[in-house]
Amino acid sequence: MTKQKTNFFWFRRDLRLDDNFGLFNALQSDFPIIPLFIFDEDILDHLPKDDARVTFIFDSLQKINDELQKNGSSILIKKGKPLEVWKSLLEEYDIQQVFFNKDYEPAAIKRDLAVSELLKQNHTEILSFKDHVIFEEQEVVKQDGLPYTVYTPYKNKWLEKYHFLGVEEHDTKPFLSKFAQNKFTFPELSEIGFERSSIKVQPHNLTQIANYKETRDFPALDSTSYLSPHLRFGTVSIRKLVNWANRKNQTFLSELIWREFFIQILFSFPKVVNHNFKSNYDGINWRNNEEDFKRWCTGTTGYPMVDAGMRQLNETGYMHNRVRMVTASFLCKHLLISWQWGEAYFAEKLLDFELASNVGNWQWAAGTGCDAAPYFRVFNPEIQQKKFDEKGEYIRRWIPEFDFGYNEPMVDHAFARDRAISVYKAGILK
């Protein structure tokens, strides 16, 4: 029996049909496109069965499938190790070309190299595209070709390049008939080995950030966009967002550039996943007390701003950005617990977990990263509370017992600050 000649588009962190650059290029090709998503067992095997992010991915794929069915097509869903899945697909189809958008995380790069080698051995052409960022890899670098390690000059160069080149959006709607007319069965979530989470990804809303510059530091106002999980999994286009922010909100645009800065750092310095960017901080003698860490995780430190943030995270998968800074600083500075512990906990809980930003922000808080807060900057959680939640609205939302005899702080701020500065000074290698 003759195999079906076809091309594939491999969805990964780009779960949308609209303005998807790799998909746009695939739909210009000569053969019908089979859209594919692989639930990667190398990732899934480490997640709880009710992981909210898996539920969100599943629902996003369902939306894509519903759209495809309007044009007589459907998405092929597979579960397994990507290399093994592609081996079976090569046996079933005469695959001419495989299209996908690039991923810049170390594990993803390793995965894509292995799959690309397999496809080449089977005379299949691989075409990869930039879609997750505006500028990738070596596109925004210093005059000597080296990567930026300080945000502000990176941002200035990024903006200069953006304003010179512009960013084009790509409408895929006219080409949706190019999908192969295959009727694949869409699985149940249970068939993938998961159950629906009670934690929901909120819909994004740009109207909520009209006054972003003035309101973004006040967690009780709920004036954030809820975009971060959508950016993480690509249900929105970074090109559309950047073009919108450039027209409407420069402060928000700066936050999107921070995201690309950290992606560039991760790509250029992959050691930051597990090691300090500043190696001279390797001598810090972290306390790493497990009981203290547990109190931080459960939001029972006695510092209301810290505890409210951790409880919000545990219950919803979200945490306000200002509160993230306070909770991270408290763990690293007040408790002298290494940033790797906090980074791993956030990675487990955050709906918007993205390796580059998570590692970058944790190392910023710990003082060990590029362009980080200085080691002697120790947030005072009580002052942060007075400045950004003066009436205690955010705190009472997450700590119902706040007005009925709340816990004493587990460590005195002045003592913790002096101890942190002393330990950092002693541990920073000359």
Automatic annotation (TrEMBL):
Enzyme class name: lyase
Keyword Lyase in record: yes
PROSITE patterns: DNA_PHOTOLYASES_1_1, DNA_PHOTOLYASES_1_2, PHR_CRY_ALPHA_BETA
Residues covered by the Photolyase/cryptochrome alpha/beta domain: 5-134
Pfam families: DNA_photolyase, FAD_binding_7
InterPro entries: Crypto/Photolyase_FAD-like_sf, Crypto/Photolyase_N_sf, Cryptochr/Photolyase_FAD-bd, Cryptochrome/DNA_photolyase_1, DNA_photolyase_1_CS_C, DNA_photolyase_N, Rossmann-like_a/b/a_fold
Required co-factors: FAD; (6R)-5,10-methylene-5,6,7,8-tetrahydrofolate
E.C. number: 4.1.99.3
MF-aspect GO terms: deoxyribodipyrimidine photo-lyase activity
Keywords: Chromophore, FAD, Flavoprotein, Lyase
Keyword Lyase listed: yes
Protein origin, superkingdom: Bacteria
Protein family: Belongs to the DNA photolyase family.
Protein known as: Cryptochrome/photolyase family protein
The organism of origin for this protein: Flavobacterium procerum
Organism classification: Bacteria, Pseudomonadati, Bacteroidota, Flavobacteriia, Flavobacteriales
